[in-house]
């Protein structure tokens, strides 16, 4: 989920095919769209559990943070596969409301709590967490900046696990290069990103690419099911129409160029 303005002023939505710039999607519109979905970005329970398997002591009572948790798709999977407490943090009050409702529905409210906040200005103590998790969101503050800033909130030997947009090849067609450099200016190859993680003071634990299903089955296909209702609710709203077109365009690009890029899970251990 990427949007200009309230979510990340650095991101400009640019429909390369129609040469249209889409300005000023407000947070309410984006949250209305993505709040209808279980997840707000590519991912799956399987990939969350796979990443968790690289964390030595995950069956202990850990203190876990999930930054930019959205409505908590991955957080609930984490909670169901660990014993400790999880604090989810997201900029969107609407998402956090849904997050806490979801936790309560699953009987997890005593261990899982969502709070509103920004991941570049965290309300936590130094070295508070055993594990910091973040799926599909670190680009909003920058991969390097996020890894460096968040490290202060991790205990020594604590783990970080993030998914991040990454190139799978050294070169790629212009259309997809422009689209992703526009959305995530820092986007790099997997090797480059691992090196950033190591320079930030983590030892490298694992990296794996998210499967195509993480994009199609849990992200693009569920969107098709909600677009009609979203457009009906926002009838006559040009920004809403343009936003749906943008999301369709992102799905088309993925099907055309998926061999060149994707999300990668990066797991590191604080030294
Ligand atoms: C692509 S969604 C990912 C949500 C969820 N982790 C998932 O994978 O389904 C990105 C999330 O980042 C949140 N976000 C963007 N900028 C943020 C910031 N500065 N601090 C906290 N959350 C932020 C958005 O509200 C949104 O929920």
From TrEMBL:
A single GO BP = methylation
This enzyme's EC code(s): 2.1.1.156
* Keywords noted in UniProt: Methyltransferase, Transferase
Gene Ontology molecular function, alphabetical: methyltransferase activity
Keyword field contains Methyltransferase: yes
Pfam families with a match to the protein in the record: Methyltransf_31
Q: Write down the top EC class of this protein.
A: transferase
The protein, known as: Glycine/sarcosine/dimethylglycine N-methyltransferase
Residue span, Methyltransferase domain: 61-168
Q: Among its keywords, does the record have Methyltransferase?
A: yes
Per the UniProt entry, what species is this protein from, by scientific name?
Atribacter laminatus
